[in-house]
Amino acid sequence: MKAVKEMTFDVNKIREDFPVLASTVNGKPLVYMDNTASSQVPNLVIERGAEYLKKEHSNVHRGVHYLSQKATTEYEAAREKVRRFINAKEAKECIFVRGTTEGINLVANGFGRKFLNEGDEIIISQMEHHSNIVPWQMIAEERGAKLRIIPMNETGELIIDEYESLLNERTKIVAISHVSNSIGTINPVKQMIETAHKFGVPVLVDGAQAAPHIRIDVQDIDADFYAFSGHKMFAPTGSGVLYGKKEWLEKMNPYQGGGSMIRTVTLEKTTYAGLPEKFEAGTPAIAPSIGLGAAIDYLDSIDLDAAFAHEHELTEYALERLASLDGVKIIGTATERASVISFTIEDVHPHDIGTILDQEGIAVRAGHHCAQPVMDFYGVPATARASFAFYNTKEEVDALVDSIQKVIDVFA
Ligand code: 7TS
Predict the structure, then answer these.
(1) What is the mean pLDDT of residues 61-88?
(2) N or C: which end of the chain has fewer CB within 10 A?
(3) How far does the centroid of ligand 1 lie from the alpha carbon of residue 99, in Å?
(4) Active site residue 94
(5) Taking the domain 46-300, which CATH number applies?
């Protein structure tokens, strides 16, 4: 009989896995609520990184000696963990990159230089992070293509009817976020992909904010490309993945040229290696990628569904408590949302909110969150943003709300 995983989630026990959470900042216990920017790292990942550097470090895919083979085995084992984590068909469809930004640039260049021509159209949305806007603007300019934008409504949801009317025979690719980093909206990507496929158009999903908060199944949503960052899902910086369907990756141009991505090189001509090497020029981020594999091991070791349910509860609780404060406005009120809450306080600059909260030991981000078009849409220069991971607690939300009340009092 298959063992049924017991549903248990003890947040205090989980917190013991993340050493930084026990620290103090400005004499107060650290309340870390900037998980959208970067999440914290559990002991298992820290220890795996140290073990690799102490005992296994070498370059990959090039040595016959023991250490190089060991590093290669571990690096490729991490790729297999990624495959399982996102349910890709084959590990070679999972390209290790430095993060979401590099993954999207890889597709914009590798796909764009091959398939985009004068007059072609690329569809993105109004709520994208700059890293899912700028690479498309750059390649559109280079290839004479045009960007078309899916608008959103006041609650921060994409207007799906408008999306459907943008798709046509000139559309060559759609690039949309799974979860918005600035307002937390979860977009109906499965439905949007199905619609694009009716036009034969491939879809890239920016999963930077989905990978740490919802279960990813690239085959179920039928994504053609899916990019995410390790450092937002409990792994070190410098790790990330671009998933691509084999059929597309094989047809695309390489993004960068160099060692490891070749089959043969003469001074006149180069032929390229197969997947995934074709897209991993030079020495890859070996230690961070192995760290990402360890982060997946960690997520496998906890009750992830219960962890996500805990995050959801925290978000609902925080939204309810924040709504009771005078002068606080929540920016983005989509029904389907992840644990990201953007807000403003009347007559207080978000940077002042961030600074005062920091004095209380509370880490939030203040700024435009690399989503200036979203700020423009709401007519604000910036917001303060609290974003939770499963290690945050209700008591921390209370501390956040109490400190926001202090901000309001200071500026009253
Ligand atoms: N896409 C989304 C939706 C993101 O939230 C981010 C980073 C990126 C792409 C880029 O990821 P990177 O790992 O390549 O930098 N978002 C944020 C944020 O919200 N605050 O700091 C970084």
Answers:
(1) 96
(2) N
(3) 9
(4) no
(5) 3.40.640.10
